[in-house]
Amino acid sequence: MSQTTTHHQGRSEVVPAAGLVVLGIYLLLSARGISVPAGEHSIGPRFFPYVVGGVLVVVGLWLVVAVLRGDRAEAEAGEDVDDQASTDWRTLGVIAAVLVGYVVLVQPLGYLLATIGLFAGMAWSLGARSWRSLVLVSLLAPFATYLLFTRALGIYLPNGLLASVI
């Protein structure tokens, strides 16, 4: 590989790093537009966008500086992928159907029920066959997320069929 090619490949690593900085700044500026209810004393809905935006800016700047100082990623020798294998259309179709089903059902079923279905459907379509782990992850992750958003952050998530219970 020539010196010019190596030099340009190294500089091209600045582009995604700078993209992180730009995305972080966008998140920080956009988070200012999120309305906060009057008298809100909890963390609030702006907290996570500010944290994620700040982390993106810091990491992006760190990567830009590292690349400009000469820190380069190793060139990949090649992927361990069978380029002769065909696309698994069944799995792709199931994933697409699960995502479309989630979008359609999140409002009428509610966040918890729809997200449990999303996690279970995705895990099953990607090969998870242990019912214990499938049920455990599909129940715990959406429930923990629901509690975090509704109780800790005060962010509304649709209750759907569970509205009378929750």
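the 2nd protein, sequnce then structure:
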Amino acid sequence: MTGWTILCDFDGTISVEDVIDSLLDRFGRPGWETLEQDWRAGRIGSRECMTGQVGLLDMTQDELDKHLSSLWIDHAFPAFVAKTRELSTPLRVVSDGLDYAIHKILGRYGLDDLPLAANHLAPATPPRQWQLTSPFQADGCRSGTCKCAVAAQAAKTGTKTLLIGDGASDFCAADRVDFVFAKHRLIEHCRAAGIPYVPITGFEDALELLPRLLDGSLLAEHTPGEPALAVTIP
């Protein structure tokens, strides 16, 4: 063990595009856009939004699987996973997305054995309809997967926690971990909130930064309030 646990978002972080958005664009019946607007305006939480949106999907199992086979992940993610395993650093995928989709996509890369916390997608009645449940929700949290609760659980192991993420579903958890590798909107959130982070464009960057995270130098460089190194003037 290296003293760190890694929690990694899926949609837009591991995956190249947002899986749910791509499914709604392809198979969503009218009404999903209104739910999206209500969520973005803060009128509803992501769990309520996604439960409603999944209920509006109109697709067969075969259509779902064919669509998922066209979605890709960051090309360097398999190498990143291999390095974490080589260094005995636990990695868990933590997503407000769909467990079935994540398993199918990662399975093409031989990575469907990664520990996963996500919403559960299941067929509904009648045919072509689907339903969402949220086994990782938490009281008082409007997200389908409460990433804060997962981060708190990781902290109980006695290790430091790294979050790798990109967007709004990662904002709350970012304040409850020890360090963040941030993409996209999460960069500005960490900067504004004073959260120790480094910006990354993808897992090539994460792979390069990992050794410095594990040896402590990265955290020391980016923790606010750390005293500056003393300089002796001759």
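The chain has eleven helices and seven strands. Confidence is low (pLDDT under 50) at residues 226-234.
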